[in-house]
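Q: Given only this backbone (142 positions), what sequence would you predict?
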């Protein structure tokens, strides 16, 4: 029987090699599993507005939660059909499943308790009022 030395860092070395390969050869070789959702976050008239494009979801599929740390968006949708005909095809089983999860940090001035969310035409919009921002100041040493 041959003894094999246990190396607890073997997986870490493998991951490091894969990342190095990715950086050398570019990101093009990574397959796109699901289409990426567009996200915009901007300030307008004292309100922080976050817009997320979720075109393949319905309002009932989307859940938004918010706390002092950030906004968390979860969306999931699945359908399952058994034995149906569509044009020339006869399906014995057809399944679709989509999911989305994202957590976005909020600035410290965000008044998250007053946030409002809406979902229209596949776009989630979260509006958070911004309070006054007291910038940290650099103290002069004496």
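A: Predicted residues:
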């Amino acid at each position: 029987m041959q003894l094999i030395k246990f190396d607890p860092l073997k997986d870490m070395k493998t991951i490091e090699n894969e990342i190095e390969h990715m950086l050398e050869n570019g990101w093009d070789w990574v397959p796109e599993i699901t289409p990426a959702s567009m996200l915009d976050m901007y300030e307008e008239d004292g309100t922080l507005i976050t817009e997320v494009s979720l075109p393949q979801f319905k309002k009932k599929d989307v859940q938004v939660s918010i706390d002092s740390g950030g906004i968390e968006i979860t969306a999931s949708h699945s359908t399952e059909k058994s034995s149906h005909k569509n044009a020339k095809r006869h399906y014995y089983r057809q399944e679709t499943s989509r999911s989305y999860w994202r957590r976005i940090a909020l600035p410290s001035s965000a008044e998250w308790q007053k946030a409002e969310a809406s979902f229209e035409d596949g776009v989630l919009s979260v509006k958070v009022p911004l309070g006054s921002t007291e910038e940290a100041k650099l103290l002069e040493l004496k």
